[in-house]
Amino acid sequence: MKPTVSSSLAGLFALCMGMLTPAISQAQDGESLYQTCAACHGAEGQGNAALKAPPLSHLTAAYIAGQLQKFRNGQRGGEGDSEPARQMATMAATLPGDDAIGTVAQFAAALEGIPEGEAEISGDVTLGGDYYNQFCGACHGPGAEGNKALSAPSLAGAPDWYLYGQLKAFREGTRGAHPDDRTGRQMRAMAGVLPSDQALRDVTAFIAGLR
Ligand code: HEC
Ligand code: HEC
Questions:
Q1: What is the pLDDT of residues 13-64, one digit of tens each?
Q2: Which of the listed residues 72, 88, 140, 210 should we mutate to test ligand 2's pocket, taking the one with most ligand atoms within 8 A of CB?
Q3: Complete domains list, the chain, with CATH
Q4: What is the pTM of this model?
Q5: In the chain, which residue ranges form alpha helices assigned H by DSSP?
Q6: Is the CB–ligand 1 distance for residue 168 below 6 Å?
């Protein structure tokens, strides 16, 4: 049947509404969903060192959503993981579903807050740079900007206390030890390559200086 003018106009209208409505309500939902997160991660996604909550503003929506899924399905923040990770798992469980995860992740990734605070971890930046170029840059990128295809997050923009804490967690198996956590396992192997605790500090000091 040949469409009449009015039915194709109606079709066009429906199409436009279909394109506009989700965009508008998604922006609102993202903001309201993020209210809970702001209490710890900061209104601008800048993080809060006292609460051990990292910034989110330097991360991509895909990585944030992926981690929220892991916190929900027990691959991160499950039994045996650190106290802050378990706390975050409780928060992720309050999100109603995949749509909410995608929406809040997009909102958080678009924030532009920059973490404040002094450096806490001291290390040999030159040695740290050597470790980084040898063991880390292939996945996280030469400027630690991240690599989407490899699911490797940006590290530039993360504060030193968080970077060091996560490297230690990977090494000790309080992150990335879950059998289904494929990317976590990858990163566990890499954290194990660094020869000592001081090497973790050296590479941390180097990365923290990149932002
Ligand atoms: C009660 C405080 C608290 C609240 C509220 C909270 N978080 Fe977190 N979040 C944390 C802590 C602490 C960590 C660090 C976990 C760790 O050390 O492994 C974290 C980690 C994360 C990470 C992992 C970041 C990375 O670099 O891997 C993401 C993503 C995240 N939170 C998103 C959110 C979102 C989105 C919300 C709101 C729905 C939220 N958080 C609410 C405390 C909180
Ligand atoms: C084979 C690729 C690969 C290499 C090499 C690699 N990483 Fe990673 N890294 C990843 C992936 C993938 C993740 C995300 C893990 C997840 O999904 O939980 C990650 C996560 C991290 C995190 C946690 C970031 C956050 O926001 O929570 C830190 C810190 C980190 N890597 C540091 C390093 C350092 C330092 C090196 C070198 C010693 C290194 N990585 C080498 C792939 C890699």
A1: 444 444 444 544 554 599 999 999 999 999 999 999 999 999 999 999 999 9
A2: 140
A3: 9-38+45-117 (1.10.760.10), 118-211 (1.10.760.10)
A4: 0.90
A5: 5-41, 61-73, 83-92, 98-109, 125-131, 137-140, 160-172, 182-193, 197-208
A6: no
